[in-house]
Automatic annotation (TrEMBL):
This is Sugar phosphate isomerase/epimerase family protein. InterPro entries: IolE/XylAMocC-like, Xyl_isomerase-like_sf, Xyl_isomerase-like_TIM-brl. One of its GO terms (molecular function) is isomerase activity. It comes from Streptomyces andamanensis. Transmembrane segments: none annotated. Residues 36-299 form the Xylose isomerase-like TIM barrel domain. The lineage of its organism: Bacteria, Bacillati, Actinomycetota, Actinomycetes, Kitasatosporales. SUPFAM superfamilies: Xylose isomerase-like. Keywords: Isomerase.
Length: 302
């Protein structure tokens, strides 16, 4: 049996999201200490911080908890609404600063930036129009460049912007418009294969077209049958996740092996962090899925 070529530029990890964690504190979520125990047991050396406040925010305590399990942090995550213009900068920077400081203290080098949702991921309430005006696109581009510059200067971190369902950076045209409007020295992408497929995008084509802008990967797959029903019914992202639209690889799309091969060809070191979007989920569901997913990724060479 032929073995997959080694993906020696890809560093695999997982995240609280794969344990059903979307919020800093929610009784339906996996407790943080169980997540750490199980992600290590599943064989992932790298993790993300997840929502700020889910894991301990005291650097000394968190370092001790990670060291005891042989874990390291690849990135923190922040949420922004920079399309709203300069008026949101101060609040954004306060949020970013807390997360960036902890991320730096953990020795990580990346900050995943998720644009704000235009409909609520809990309630599905429409919060604002799904399409930005030209002025708002300008605010988004300039604000993200400023964020990239100031995060680098202040914390030594690189931002990677995460195209995400039910945000304004989602489809292929929106992602291309965002990339074409921003400085590649300041702004790169966290390509989430599942979200991009959910919104109709082709991850391999994106890597091949904008390779120099790919700074980070999130690995997940979409169940195409459930997605077709979600699209037909106009189901928001949160309820779609509860329907199981994000599925365990290799049962969905996109095929992750070509994605990883395309990323390897870029010739740069990339994190590839597994995220399945399982909120909410049964307490005993994540670990077996994580173990099988790690085995699958090894079969791909990662």
């Amino acid at each position: 049996m032929a073995t997959a070529p080694a993906l020696d530029r890809i560093r695999v990890g997982s995240a609280p999201d794969s344990w059903g964690v979307w919020f800093p504190d929610d009784p339906r979520q996996t407790p943080w200490h169980r997540f750490l125990d199980e992600v290590a047991e599943a064989g992932y050396p790298w993790i993300e911080l997840g929502p700020y406040g889910y894991l301990p925010t005291d650097p000394a305590r968190l370092t001790d908890e990670l060291d005891r399990r042989g874990l390291k942090v690849s990135a923190g995550t922040v949420f922004t609404g920079l399309h709203r213009g300069p008026s949101v900068w101060q609040d954004t920077w306060e949020h970013v600063g807390r997360v960036a400081a902890l991320t730096r203290a953990m020795g990580a080098r990346h900050l995943v930036v998720i644009p704000s949702f235009w409909r609520d991921d809990r309630t599905a309430e429409i919060l604002e129009p799904p399409e930005l005006t030209s002025e708002q696109w300008g605010h988004l581009a300039r604000g993200t460049e400023r964020l990239g510059r100031e995060v680098k200067e202040t914390y030594g971190l690189d931002i990677v912007v995460h195209p995400h369902a039910d945000t304004h950076i989602d489809t292929e045209p929106h992602v291309a418009r965002f990339l074409d409007a921003t400085d590649p020295d300041l702004v790169r992408l966290c390509l989430d294969t599942g979200h991009y497929a959910y919104c109709g995008g082709d991850s391999v084509r994106l890597i091949e077209t904008y390779g120099e802008r790919i700074g980070y990967l999130h690995l997940k797959q979409v169940d195409p049958e459930i997605l077709a029903r979600v699209v037909a019914d106009g189901v928001p992202f949160g309820p779609a996740v509860r329907r199981g639209v994000m599925c365990e690889p290799p049962s969905g799309v996109p095929d992750l092996e070509p994605v990883l091969a395309a990323a390897q060809k870029l010739g740069v070191d990339l994190f590839a962090i597994v995220e399945q979007d399982m909120y909410p989920c049964a307490p005993n569901a994540p670990l077996p899925i994580a173990v099988r997913t790690r085995r699958f990724l090894r079969s791909c060479g990662a």
